[in-house]
Amino acid sequence: MPASNSTSLLTDMYELTMVDAALKAGTALRPSTFEVFGRRLPATRRFGVVAGTGRVLEAMERFEFEPDQIDWIHAQKIVSAETLDFLKNFRFSGNIRGYAEGECFFPGSPLMTVEGTFAECTLLETLLLSILNHDCAIASAASRMTIAAHGRPCMDMGARRGHERAAVSAARAAIIGGFKGTSNLEAAKRYGIMSIGTAAHSFTLLHDSEREAFDAQIAKLGPSTTLLVDTYDVEQGVINAVEAARAAGGELGAVRLDSGDLVASAFKVRGQLDALGATSTKITVTNDLDEYAIAALGAAPIDSYGVGTKLVTGSGVPTAALVYKLVVRYDEDGNAIPVAKKSESKSTVGGKKTAGRVLDEDGYAAEELLVVGDSEDEAKKTLEAQGARPLQIPLVVDGAINADLWGVEALEQAQERHIRSRNELPYQAWRLSEGETAIPTRYEKIV
Q1: Which residues of 7-46 are buried (b: 16+ CB within 10 A; e: fewer)?
Q2: What dihedral do alpha carbons 102, 185, 56, 122 form, nearest 10°?
């Protein structure tokens, strides 16, 4: 059976069984407010990066139950006939606001606030969490890597190290975190990302000699290409690369190092290139890099980094550990009632949050201020009175999804927004070591 274009079954079974039980109890249509947030950050993360919002919105455009899906749910006896009728006509009709893509976030930050009936909010839980948990983790890792790179470009080369579809999403999230390009053509096409790539060791091994391989690559891609010089002997590889480019009438664009002691090799190769007069030829390195390896290469004469496995796996933190919790329910009389979990180590803060970032007198972030109260107008006044920068924007209004938030231009804006948001953080946020979050989170309740 061909894969469906619908995203409605990208969910857990208990979302449907909860809706089924709530419909029978007469509570499914009660107005409710859910929030996506993280209780804490991993020890190695001093801030998180919001990514995946655009993908969530695009997926919601296709969140509907097709006839064959309804037939399958019926055959599996997952829900009652009443709930099947509800699902047949389902389209989310509520409101969602959230942090714009690229913003930094902290414990408790309401990345998304979802308002609607209990039933329609519940159906979205798994879809939202699966996208945001993955993309925020990748973008957060990418941000640390670009911090460590100190302005040298980082490129995504992780497609072969993860799930084929996750690799596309990871490439997008990496751009939000500051990466400049990707080797994945589907990601490049879909999201307008610069594509990068030339040749692997197998291309060199295919030919009778390294020089013949270089000649063949340059004949197709021109002297400005990047040649992989460590298939055999690096020193001779550099000579062959420079001579091949000059024989074609140009200066070699770059050499790539993919093995060994990259620091020592980079210094040796830079000296060799300069001695050969190839002073404009750049050096790019790959080979299982992460933020720590990139930081260790900071003093070496390297021009760019290609990052694979550690990027697409979140550099040791493959999920952002976000949760989706009910924070407000409305009773039969329309009164808002804050609700919260009291479980040990899993407690939550009830009530709808309006978020802002308070800056100190030097213009750096001092705290994440979460105003708790049902009135957004009053909450915004509280933020304004304390000089806090508002963090949430409308994403879905009365079921109408803002399609401007997931295109090529939106991705470019998300990267720019992240750089601004990251630059706003105090110095300790940029450290790669374990430690406290960059700024504290403070809750303030309004009546």
Answers
A1: bbbebeeebbebbbebbeeeebebbbbbbbbbeebbebbb
A2: -130
**Each residue of 94-141: pLDDT tens digit?**
999 999 999 999 999 999 999 999 999 999 999 999 999 999 999 999
Q: What is the pLDDT of residues 31-64, one digit of tens each?
A: 999 999 999 999 899 999 999 999 999 999 999 9
376, burial (CB in 10 Å: exposed 0-12, middle 13-18, buried 19+): middle
HEC readout, 249-267: CCCCCEEEECCCCHHHHHH
pTM score, two decimals? 0.95
Question: Measured between alpha carbons, how far is 190 from 154 in angstroms, rounded to an integer?
Answer: 20
Other beta carbons less than 10 A from residue 372's beta carbon: 18
How far is the C-alpha of 6 from the C-alpha of 60, rounded, in Å? 9
**Residue of 108, 115, 176 whose CA lies nearest to 141:** 176
| Residue 125 token pair | 């839980």
Q: β-strand 353-359 against 365-372: which pairing, if any?
A: antiparallel
Residue with tokens 């999920």: 319
CB atoms within 10 A of CB 166: 18
Comparing CA positions, the residue from 125, 127, 132, 105 lying closest to residue 42 is 105
Query: What digits encode the pLDDT tens for the residues 390-413?
Result: 999 999 999 999 999 989 999 999
Q: Tell me, letter by letter, the H, E, C secondary structure of 84-129.
A: HHHHHCCCCCCEEEEECCCCEECCCCCCEEEEEEHHHHHHCHHHHH
Distance, in Å, from the CA atom of 73 to the CA atom of 78, rounded to the nearest integer, reads: 6
C-alpha span between 36 and 53 (Å, rounded): 12
CA pseudo-torsion sign 68, 70, 75, 81 = negative
